[in-house]
């Protein structure tokens, strides 16, 4: 079976390393970049134990013939790149290829689900991870924090059992979720509470455990829970505060993806994180001032 990971960012490279660890040759794992041609690339990956593995890897380009052989395509690009990444390759995928999205924030799954209506033998799964990963250089990634990875079926044909068990075995702390939309909302709340604050205050995740940030974090969480409820998703305050605290603790040394984006002057996923909550709140006719402040602060930094 052939698995492609498209998007060679920090999380894409982390996943590539994890899916390649200790495996038999049952699955061939490809890393796919967004350039047209394939190339051989020296890479290094440092695990949580500080052991570094070096190697040369063939990175497939968008035109590579291997794309037509993939059984599972894991899309690890930023939320705002999901549709533009899938659109040019979808016609070359096997008719029954499975697609899995793994990114922060919410929104693009609705567009991909619409696209898949024309491909009835394909299926869409969604995943979200709280693992920390840092790109020290373009092909040099460190695993900077443990965290949970949640995966579940969203629409179309279900993911085959052997893929499910492979992913759950290879990715540390990965679990399958029957209701992935609730899991995505939980992760959204975590990202709303951590990402904009770390980017705005220029701090590592662990610093958010300090007392001075607690009022802001609790207000963001409460607003998210209210909007989720209006969207038909029941989240409890106790659970969400615990989950946010746990991620702050387990990824204390991590530079959040949004802080990395701001520091490298890249666009952020704020429109799909705080922006998604603000948009859903507006749809339901309510205000979410703390999340709106986060959205506006990060948009100002982006500009
Ligand atoms: O976006 C991130 O950085 C991650 O989702 C998380 C969980 C906040 C850890 O840094």
TrEMBL record:
Pfam families reported in the protein's UniProt record: ApbA, ApbA_C
Q: What is its EC number?
A: 1.1.1.169
Single GO BP term: pantothenate biosynthetic process
State the similarity comment: Belongs to the ketopantoate reductase family.
Cite the Ketopantoate reductase C-terminal domain residue spans from the record: 179-302
Q: Which reaction does it catalyse?
A: (R)-pantoate + NADP(+) = 2-dehydropantoate + NADPH + H(+)
> Which GO molecular function entries does the Swiss-Prot or TrEMBL record give?
2-dehydropantoate 2-reductase activity; NADP binding
- Record's keyword annotation contains NADP: yes
Q: Which organism is it from?
A: Shewanella gaetbuli
Q: Which InterPro entries match?
A: 6-PGluconate_DH-like_C_sf, 6PGD_dom2, ApbA, Ketopantoate_reductase, KPA_reductase, KPR_N, NAD(P)-bd_dom_sf
Q: In which pathway does it act?
A: Cofactor biosynthesis; (R)-pantothenate biosynthesis; (R)-pantoate from 3-methyl-2-oxobutanoate: step 2/2
Could you identify this protein by its name? 2-dehydropantoate 2-reductase
Q: Which Gene3D superfamilies match?
A: N-(1-d-carboxylethyl)-l-norvaline Dehydrogenase, domain 2, NAD(P)-binding Rossmann-like Domain
**Keyword ATP-binding attributed:** no
Span of domain Ketopantoate reductase N-terminal: 3-154
Q: Which PANTHER family match?
A: 2-DEHYDROPANTOATE 2-REDUCTASE (PTHR43765:SF2), 2-DEHYDROPANTOATE 2-REDUCTASE-RELATED (PTHR43765)
